[in-house]
Amino acid sequence: MVDVATTPVPGSGERVAARRSRSLEDRLLALPPAVLGLAGTLIFLLVWELVPALGIIPAKYLPPPSEVLPVFARNLTYVEFWAAVWDTLQGWGLGLAFASAVAVVAGLVIGGSTLLRRLTASTIEFLRPIPSVALIPLAVLLFGVDLESKLLLVVYASFWQVLIQVLYGVADVDPVARNTARSFGMGYLARVRHVVWPTVLPYLMTGLRLGASVALILAVTSELVINNPGLGREIALAQSSGSYAPMYALVLATGLIGVAINTVFRAIERRVLAWHPSVRAEVAR
């Protein structure tokens, strides 16, 4: 006779394991985000250390972090390193500022007119997908290896990120609010200030954050390819001389700059959009 009380129910083991797994995940999710982020970084460094140690990639071409991190720390004490960082950030900042200013004005003007929107739609859709690196020959012909060639690539790449977001924002303006403003006799600038701008602002902040990342990529790319002064040129010089640990230390520096830029823009976004429901919900979590 079968003892029903002690006979395992088919599938019960999997359900128990699933409950244990979910409880472990819940306990991990209860940890502070900074702790989880640190754990993820340590796992990444461990994998990086193991890849050359196991011979998956020769250590000559991928030095382990135990070799790269000391070089990175030494770089922080060199004036030449900080000069290269400044050159990269200078091209990034000037290009992003100019592109953002032009894109905001163009987006408000084009987005506010149905005729202009239809006239420019095909041109924007044609120009926007062109990779900025395709303009490198033109940049070299026009400006050589001067700062202007880097700015041309940075401006072109980040301009579209901001412009498209501003156009989305203008298109999202409530038509009832727009018509009500017109019926109250508000002028164009007043409507932009009080009706259009509050709707556009969240889109603009997203565009600026995306544009900032793309601008950094193009700044380093121009330094790598055109030989503009900056971290990209230092990476190319280290690679050509076979100094792979210093090369990865510089790559690590560019990655950390990207993280810092994204963090700063996220903080600005939270402050500027503190009134917006999406930011308030994010802060509440």
UniProtKB/TrEMBL annotation:
Assigned keywords, A-Z: Cell membrane, Membrane, Transmembrane, Transmembrane helix, Transport
Alphabetized Gene3D superfamilies for the sequence: MetI-like (1.10.3720.10)
Residue intervals of the ABC transmembrane type-1 domain: 85-269
Membrane topology: Multi-pass membrane protein
Source taxon at top rank: Bacteria
Regions crossing the membrane: 28-48, 92-114, 126-145, 151-171, 200-226, 246-265
Xref: InterPro entries: MetI-like, MetI-like_sf
BP terms from Gene Ontology: transmembrane transport
UniProt-listed Pfam families: BPD_transp_1
Location within or outside the cell: Cell membrane
KW DNA damage (keyword) present: no
GO CC field: plasma membrane
PANTHER family attached to this UniProt entry: ABC TRANSPORTER PERMEASE PROTEIN MJ0413-RELATED, ALKANE SULFONATE ABC TRANSPORTER-RELATED, MEMBRANE SUBUNIT
Protein family: Belongs to the binding-protein-dependent transport system permease family.
The name this protein goes by in its record: ABC-type nitrate/sulfonate/bicarbonate transport system permease component
Species of the source: Ornithinimicrobium humiphilum
